[in-house]
## 1
Amino acid sequence: MNTQGTARDTTSPRRAGGQWTVFPEWSPDLLKARVYERILLDIILCALPPGSRLDEQDLVRRYDAGLAGVREALGRLALEGLVVRRARAGTTVATLDLLEVRQAVDARRLIEPHCAALAASNAGAEDIARLRAAFAGSEAAVRDRDATALVRMDQHFHEAIARASRNITLARILIPLQHKAARFWVWSMGDDSESALLEEIARHRAVVDAIADRDPERARAAVLRTLGAFSDDANRAVNAPAEALAVARTARSF
């Protein structure tokens, strides 16, 4: 009897059409999901700056979307802590709270390595293909300092790890944590050299190799390496003088 195969079958979550979906109510095929992703990306990239007020009708025009879809997207972003909604005061983009970011990074260091280890046991061929495709074209994006492309790649990569874990509870926790941490990653990325960014991408690809090789412990360690430098940056930012951070924020460019 293949006990390993039996154990894997009994722990597999529900699938729909062969695709495992973390948020089935937010399928990428739905317009509201596409609106959500566009608003999310603009928040991460500071195209919608921290503290700015979000007028629903302006967002409808900006994203060529329906009012209902915009409202649902803002509701999801509010649950993730990326926007703040108050009665009669409207909706604003949440401030970039560096202490909260550090706490999010600490939580990711506990959860994401475990998700990667689970992925090494549970990922299917589609999961591994999705992970390998996440950073396709990254060298050109780094050369061109294309922050939008790099952020999108990073988001797709970490979401793919969450999916491949086949643990829907952990995935629902991890994905919003990644969104919150990504805001700081963009803020800190302006100082990174081209070689540093390429090394970071190589560390992410090492995670995929470990998952593809079905090596849980190597996958766990590889994820910790991708989070290590990020954690150091977050700790330095939290402990830096407020005046220095204010100057640094205004100097960021890609």
## 2
Amino acid sequence: MPRGRRSTNALSVVPVIPGQGRPQPPRTMDKTEKVVWRSIVGAMPPNWFGSECQPVLRRLCAQIVISEGLEEQLRKVRADGLADSERAARLAEAHRDAARAVNQLSQALRLTPKSRWSARASETEVGHAAKERPWEIRARG
């Protein structure tokens, strides 16, 4: 090992962040899915989605579009006065399943605020929020 002082470059640490910035939507997606993709990717930090996450993100976008389509159909059925029909029940069930898939995929990608916090950290933040009024908050240092 060489003796003496080390240069600043030798001592600096360069973090390796996975991902390549904001990924573009796959060409195989339709126009609506691409809009959802860009919306999700734009809302997260630039290197949030590595290549290993993109298949899950692709499925999330598809499920969001499916869920919104089912929601529109369900509204139309209700507007037609058929809220108690079997078709409305099937649409509601399919919508529930799609919404559940959206929720699970969002949590897997850590998109929801709840999925980004540990249970202990969220308890601490809730405790602080409940006890402190905005004019009483001081910088935590």
